[in-house]
Amino acid sequence: MIYSILFWRNNVSHKTSNGQPAASGGFSKQKNDKLVGVFSDVCGGVRTANIPLALALLSGQSTGGRKRPPTTTTAPRHRPTAVEDEESADQLESECPEPNGFFADASQCDKYYACTDNKITEKLCPDGMVFNDYSSQQEKCDLPLNIDCSQRPALQTPQPAEHCPRQNGYFAHENPNICDKFYYCVDGKFNAITCPGGLVYNEKSGICTWPDEAKKKGCSSQDVFNFRCPNVTSDIALQHPRYANPEDCQFFYVCVNGDTPRRNGCKMGQVFNEASGKCDWPRNVPECADWYKGVLTDEELYNLENPKPKETTKEKEAAAANRRKPSRPTTTRRTVVEDDE
C-alpha cells in the first residue's frame, strides 16, 4: 500500500492548464531523497514508524512545528490579445520625456513624437526629409545633409518618382559619368541643375565643388577635365603652376601642389597667356588672336580693353548734391507808382 502511494506520487507529472509543470505539484531533489529513505525503511520492514513521515511528505506538510502556507488555487491568467500587446509595448517604449515637445525616435531618423500634456503622437517626416532634433520646442523636418543620422540610420520606405529616388532632396544624376548635373526634388517633382564650369556635384555636401573635393568615383579632376598635371620638381609644385587649356583659350588649369588640376578662366574678352601665366588680351597671344572672332566685334574688344574712365568719388558726390538741390525760380521785384491827385 505504501509502496503504491510513493510510486504514484513520485512519477505522475503535475501540470497546470497551460501545460507547464506546476510550481507546487512537483518535488525537489531534497524531498525526493527523503522519500527514497522512507521508502527503503518501510519496504524493508525495519522502521515502520516512518510511515506517517512518508504520508506527511507526500501531502506537502512540514514535519516540524512551523506550518507551510496553504496552497492556493489561482484562476487561469488572462492572455492579452495581439492588439493589447502592441498598445502596451507602444506605451512602455514611447513615453514622453517631457510633458510637451517634439522628440526624435531612437532608431529611425525620419520618425519623431509630439507630446502634448504627456499625450504622445507618433509622426513621420515627408519622404526624403529627417527630423531635426536641435530643439525639442520646434517641429522641423530637414534635409539629411544637415542632420547627423549615424546613431539612428533607419528610414521609411522610399517613394521614388522620375529622377527622384525619394520625394524630397538633392540627388546625383542617374548616369555616374555625368558629374556636373544633379536634381533637386520637391514632393516628387524634379528640377535639373548644372554646376558651373569646372565643378561637379558633391553628394556629401549637396553643392557643387571641385572634383578633388567631391571624391566621387569616375568624377576625379583627371576624369572630368581629361587633363593631367605634368611632373615637376617640388619647388615648382609649391607654386601651384598654371597651364593653358589646349582646347579653350579662355581657360587654364591650376595644378594644386603640382598634381591636382583645377579649371579656371579669364574674363570675357581675355585669353590665357602661358608665357606670363596670366590672363591677357588676344592681340598679345598670337595663337589666340582670333579666339573671339564672331563672338565680339573689334569695337567691343577695344572698349573692353580701353574702358571709359569712371567718375571719381568727388565727382559722384558733386553730381548727387546737384540733383538734391532744386533750382529756385527767379522773382521780379514789382514797383508800384502812385498817381498824384
UniProtKB/TrEMBL annotation:
Which GO cellular component terms, listed alphabetically, does the Swiss-Prot or TrEMBL entry include?
A: extracellular region
- Report whether Ribosomal protein shows up as a keyword of the record: no
Query: Which intervals hold domain Chitin-binding type-2?
Result: 93-151, 161-221, 226-290
| GO function term, MF aspect, one | chitin binding
* Annotated keywords: Chitin-binding, Disulfide bond, Glycoprotein, Repeat, Signal
Q: Which PANTHER family match?
A: BCDNA.GH02976, CHITIN BINDING PERITROPHIN-A
Task: Kindly provide the name given to this protein in its UniProt entry.
Answer: Chitin-binding type-2 domain-containing protein
The record lists the organism as Aphis glycines
